[in-house]
Amino acid sequence: MLDSGQQFFADIEVNQIPQAGIGFLRELAARSSHYSLLERRHNVTQMDVSQDTIELLIERELIENRHGQYSFQVELIRRWFANIQ
Which of 4, 9, 80, 81 is geometrically suited to a Cys-Cys bond with 25, CB 3.0 to 4.6 A? Predict the structure, then answer.
């Protein structure tokens, strides 16, 4: 599915989100789980992403915020960002 949907995933990466958002999604995907607001506050230099970017990712329904923890809404999209170089 990742191979056959490559154009769909690449469009998300290239046309729908800013570079800072891509870095955040890669980091979140690598964790294979949730990323809490508290972790984000403590890792500002590592995860330098604005609240506007986070809100854009939520608006585009790539991630969600459940009780202060970010996670991907769709596992297949998480896998794409975990595997891109």
Answer: 81
| pTM across the whole model | 0.72
Strands 35-36 and 69-72: antiparallel
pLDDT tens per residue, range 42-63: 454 345 678 888 899 999 999 9
What values do phi and psi take at 22, rounded to 5? -65, -45
For the beta sheet containing 63-66, the strands, ordered from the edge strand earlier in sequence to the opposite edge, are 35-36, 69-72, 63-66
Whether 35 contacts 84, CB under 8 Å: no
